[in-house]
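Run log // design_07
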């Protein structure tokens, strides 16, 4: 059970902006929902502004978190960004009495909208880019039409949270002053994700993948490595996640006669999956601060991950996991074999992985660090109000 934070002396009303939110979840969405739950338990008032979803109410409260599905957008090329920004900006103006500060749970269009309206409203805003690299949040701003103007609005936000070293570098390259950037990684629920004890023989031979089946996660290199590694069917691979490459991956398994590969589809309750495996694999081309990796490390799995920013920020080769070059299937196969066969090494790396997450990514600590930044910004703005919850609805 997650701990209950101490009651807030001065409750904050925190608006959280995301294109998608519960029950449509990815890493950023899960992270923001869990942060909001913790803030609500300590007496703060989080409210989420997100896109409308067919079949779901425009407003509901889940575990103390108010969700307003009120953002309209047109999912048609450049129209998506323009309509999303306009709709979110209008909602932030209309609901200004409902919040003291805004947190953008991702950067591309949320940061433009908050930069557009929040300075005039005298509401501070914090931007948390959720992804990095060629298709990441910051690069989307750089590549967009009218990038020079979008960048100007983004830079009007007060604070930027970098979840990885690459995120910090990309924010600096965008023009964010160094003093406006804070390095705060994602958090993990250490009670929910924890080691399960001794390994069974079945668990000792099992590798887990928890990620979408998309190009950015690089599942092709894993299947090539599995062909090298598991010709005798000695090991087992559990693939949790779905996506546009799902059918292609299944066809590859059939075509190449890969043994002991199980496609589990989307798995909402991940801890039971972790209890079936001893090794976790993530061959991504790039990451922000991967939730799935942190959760696997907290669960005591030995991480075998690509040597890319985000992963390499968390895993030190030979210390708390193993690294490989993202497109080198031979290197990945060798790293997996090492983790599966060398039991003392695997156990040492697993213990170190859990210890690292405990020291750097405990969720309550992350929630408190972000909340401290919120309180300082709100105090500096002089706009802290005590409007009752529900005002401006």
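design_07 sequence
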């Amino acid at each position: 059970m997650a701990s209950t934070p101490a009651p807030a002396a001065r409750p904050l009303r925190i608006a959280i902006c995301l294109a998608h939110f519960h029950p449509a979840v990815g890493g950023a969405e899960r992270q923001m929902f869990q942060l909001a739950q913790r803030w609500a338990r300590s007496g703060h008032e989080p409210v989420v502004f997100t896109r409308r979803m067919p079949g779901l109410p425009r407003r509901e409260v889940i575990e103390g978190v108010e969700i307003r599905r009120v953002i309209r957008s047109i999912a048609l090329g450049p129209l998506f960004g323009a309509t999303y920004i306009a709709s979110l900006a209008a909602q932030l103006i209309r609901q200004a009495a409902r919040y003291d500060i805004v947190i953008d749970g991702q950067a591309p269009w949320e940061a433009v909208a908050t930069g557009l309206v929040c300075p005039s409203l005298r509401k501070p805003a914090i931007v948390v880019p959720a992804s990095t690299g060629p298709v990441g949040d910051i690069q989307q701003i750089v590549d967009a039409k009218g990038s020079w103007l979008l960048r100007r609005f983004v830079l009007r936000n007060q604070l930027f949270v970098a979840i990885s070293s690459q995120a910090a570098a990309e924010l600096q390259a965008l023009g964010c002053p160094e003093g406006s950037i804070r390095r705060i990684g994602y958090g993990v629920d250490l009670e929910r994700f924890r080691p399960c004890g001794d390994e069974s023989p079945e668990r000792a031979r099992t590798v887990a993948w928890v990620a979408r089946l998309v190009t950015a996660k690089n599942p092709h290199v894993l299947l090539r490595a599995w062909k090298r590694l598991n010709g005798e069917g000695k090991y087992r691979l559990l693939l949790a996640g779905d996506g546009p490459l799902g059918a292609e991956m299944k066809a590859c398994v059939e075509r190449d006669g890969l043994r002991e590969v199980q496609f589990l589809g989307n798995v909402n309750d991940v801890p039971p999956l972790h209890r079936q495996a001893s090794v976790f694999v993530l061959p991504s081309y790039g990451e922000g601060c991967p939730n799935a990796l942190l959760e696997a490390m907290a669960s005591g799995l030995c991480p075998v991950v690509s040597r890319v920013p985000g992963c390499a920020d968390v895993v030190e080769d030979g210390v708390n996991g193993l690294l490989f070059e993202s497109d080198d299937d031979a290197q990945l196969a060798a790293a997996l074999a090492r983790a599966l066969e060398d039991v003392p090494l695997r156990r040492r790396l697993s213990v170190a992985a859990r210890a690292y997450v405990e020291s750097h990514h405990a969720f309550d600590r992350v929630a408190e660090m972000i909340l401290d930044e919120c309180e300082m910004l709100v105090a500096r703005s002089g706009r802290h109000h005590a409007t009752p919850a529900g005002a401006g609805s």
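The radius of gyration is 22 Å.
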